[in-house]
Amino acid sequence: MRATAVWTVRGAAGVLTAAGLGHTLWNGLVEPGIALAFGILITIGELARREPTDRRPAPLGSAGALAYALLGQNAGQPTRHGVLQIVAVVVAAALAGIVPHVARGRGPAVDHIARRVLTVAFAAVCFQPLYNSGRLEERVGQGPYLVLFLLLLLGLTALCDAVLAAALAAARTGWPYGPLLRDELRAQLGIGSAICATGVVMALGVAGAGLWALPVFSVPLLLTQLSFHRITAIRTTYRQTITSLARATEIAGYTPTGHSRRVAALSCAVGRELGLSERELTVLEYAALMHDIGQLSLVDPVPDGATAELPAAEARRIAQLGGEVARQTGVPAEVAVVVERQADPYREQPVAARIVRAVNAYDDLVGGNRHPGSSLAALEQLRLGTGHAYQPEVVDGLARVLARGGRDRVVPVQPG
Could you say which DSSP state residue 293 is in? Predict the structure, then answer.
């Protein structure tokens, strides 16, 4: 089913691409100057991406593609490019933009291009026939009602893009579709709103002032895109710092090698299974990485770092020490709360602490034995503790994640 969804999206985009390129090659470019201008804009937007495999949209490239799809006039003169030419120009420009990335050894993002083709084609099909036939002008005119129509159309386009993105992510990762769609819709309210608004402004600007409006309206979005790159780099460095700090317990011999990373990856997968948002997953990942940091305050290490088998009072003491250490590192307050509450009865814990406690106990119980029988035995022991220590829904979510392939297939959440 998951593979079917991916190949359906790619197949639909491939058919549209073949039709667009074939039609354009056969009939030639209509108004090549306009097509070249928007093609260059889209190419620059793709070149400005940090890497082509980034799942986030290229703001400038996306806005330029939408503007070309919604372009009805150029300096007051009607344009004559159709839906198929729009698809051809967008695909050709996107491919040209990823060539330098491929040359540096990074593969092209096929799903990203497929999404771009389908969403741009959707906007063009909804706008171009109505505008070129004159029916749109008869009904809404050229004033504010046209702007409202364009905004409504772009809202539907953003919804289409979110649905496709969530479907592809669910097929790629196996995570539940609902939470992924919710995260994509939230993302559309952020940078997606800026992309849609800029696309409308570009189309209206070119309609009134000509192609000189493109650089005027594209520079602010390009600068915004570069700023996002810097923010992403800072977040990546922050995550790497927390990961390095979490390894202190391994280096000091308090926990087994790779324990914190396994717990973080598996906790994020369980969080996805239970429908946590991107922000909640980020807090969960940081807390899972640091969940054993309180052991650094111990004089004698816990055997194998297995805090799940300690008496409840001792486990809570270590967790509280970990929360104090976490606060001194400057992590968000929610992370420290999860760390210090991980040993409490689950009814008194936040959701993230419930997940960390169950996954940590599972990894402690499995230890170095990766035989399927040990995994089943560990899950059974966790189920015996669901009356007090572990939330039944969390244990069930952990079991579903493991049934889909186990910890080796878990992908940790990326900083968002």
Answer: G
| HEC profile of 262-279 | HHHHHHHHHHHHCCCCHH
Give the amino acid at 240: Q
- Helix/strand number for the chain, H first, E second: 18, 2
**In 10 A of CB 404, how many CB atoms?**
14
pLDDT band at 169 (very low <50, low <70, confident <90, very high): confident
| Per-residue model confidence as pLDDT tens digits over 65-104 | 999 999 988 888 888 888 999 999 999 998 888 877 777 7
Residue 407 has pLDDT above 70, yes or no: no
Q: Which helix (H) or strand (E) holds 77?
A: strand 77-78
Q: Please spell the DSSP secondary structure of 373-416, one letter per residue.
A: HHHHHHHHHHHHTTTTTS-HHHHHHHHHHHHTT-GGG--PPPP-
Tally Cβ neighbours within 10 Å of residue 55.
16
Tokens of 363: 């990894």
Residue 78 in 3-state DSSP? strand
Q: Which of left, alpha, beta for 105 (phi over 0: left; psi -120 to 50: alpha)?
A: left
DSSP annotation of 61 reads H
CA distance 324 to 413: 25
Closest by CA to 408, choosing from 256, 271, 262, is: 262
Nearest to 239 by CA among 51, 50, 54, 413: 413
Number of Cβ within 10 Å of residue 244's Cβ equals: 11
pLDDT tens by residue, 224-243: 777 777 777 777 787 787 88
What is the average pLDDT value for the chain, to the nearest integer? 81
**Which tokens is 386 given?**
């669901």
Measured CA to CA in angstroms, residue 397 lies from 101, 267, 375, 383 at distances of 38, 10, 14, 12
pLDDT digits (tens, 9 = 90+) for 95-128: 888 877 777 766 556 788 888 899 999 999 999 9
Considering all CA atoms of the chain, what is the largest pairwise distance in Å, rounded to the nearest integer? Answer: 81
Query: How far apart, in whole angstroms, are the C-alpha atoms of residue 173 and residue 240?
Result: 23
Amino acid at 238: Y
